[in-house]
Amino acid sequence: FTVFEALGSKLQGVFDRLRGRGALSEADVNDALREVRVALLEADVALPVVKDITAKVRERAVGQEVIRSIQPGQMVVKIVHDALVDALGGKDAAKGIDLAAASPVPILMVGLQGSGKTTTSGKIALRLRGRERKKVLLASLDVHRPAAQLQLETLARQAEVTSLPIIAGQTPLQIAQRAMETARGELYDVVILDTAGRLAIDDALMDEVAAVKAAVKPHETLLVVDAMTGQDAVNTARAFNEKVGVTGIVMTRVDGDARGGAALSMRAVTGAPIKLLGAGEKLDALEDFHPDRIAGRILG
Ligand code: GDP
Fold first, then answer.
1. Known binder of ligand: residue 245?
2. In 3D, which of 191, 175, 197 has the Cα closest to residue 110?
């Protein structure tokens, strides 16, 4: 994922210098840590998260054990790796979408307009139909932009799943309830509800999402955020989690040239785990989020 490339090459530079060394002084470790801190800040990682990561690394790395070990450089890399995994949500984070509930399982998709929410709804539908053999119903609750409803219909066709027939004049709540009734009657396994997005967070958007959430009681509420928006993605996630509550985050456009720091800040700042990554416009460009694999890629 290109969003982690810049951070990765900076950190690899720092560690290449440490790796070959047979002995490290406390000053060497401190120098390296200073460079790690700069690299994280330049990658747009939130300051409290940078502090947390470097404090953890310092605590473990400055110990005599590292300085006396035969390959101290490797040990420091391992310590940074573990700190990155923690920041990304921990080893056991993100088990993908949780469908462990009575069918039909409602999944609510929320996020700002342009974040990739509708595309991601299509991607999830394709994955659940294909890999998990689920019968999936897609429904657009975006009554503000009729084009959005048509877009979801097109995506449903591409993903070879059903979309709820559009009835003009219904409210988002009515559409959501109709989707659930249809799904119960026709024995669907999963209902994906794509809500309306706005260009910015406002009370009307939050109230609308909260009302649908209260009525449908989704098993997953997935927030879609655009990695290209950096720290704004983190602020968006915090606001959504405070106002409606989310069970997971899908970060899109990790194929772009943004700095990947938002991914590292997300868990600490919002409390919600990243579950999936969107890595392209095509419907199969959806990846599971594995903190250890991402940390591994960043450190090369
Ligand atoms: P929505 O307004 O949140 O529903 O956003 P859309 O799903 O309509 O997506 C907006 C644009 O972003 C579309 O052109 C999508 O093809 C594109 N898009 C969505 N996800 C990704 C992604 O992971 N990578 C890239 N490169 N483009 C994406």
1. no
2. 197
